[in-house]
Write a structure and sequence with these properties.
Blueprint: H1 11-19, H2 24-50, H3 72-75
Length: about 80
């Protein structure tokens, strides 16, 4: 066996050999897949942060729920 045949192939060499260099098609594929995951991430953020109903309990029972300005117009003389 020659030294060329016994040479170890690295992961990078194997990828270049089988898939080729990182070209325009790879970039296009990467951008399309990443954009799909980006949209999914944004939808997940909306579900987590915007759609949550706060757990509020009105201690006074009159509907103001701790808002100090809720009854301001009725108390002004």
């Amino acid at each position: 066996m020659s030294t060329e045949a016994r040479r170890r192939v690295s992961i990078d060499d194997a990828l270049v050999w089988h898939a080729g260099e990182f070209g325009r098609w790879h970039l296009r594929h990467f951008v399309l897949v990443s954009s799909a995951w980006l949209l999914e991430a944004l939808h997940t953020m909306v579900i987590i942060f915007a759609d949550r109903e706060p757990a509020m309990v009105c201690a006074a029972g009159d509907g103001r729920c701790g808002d100090r300005y809720a009854g301001a117009s009725s108390t002004v003389a």
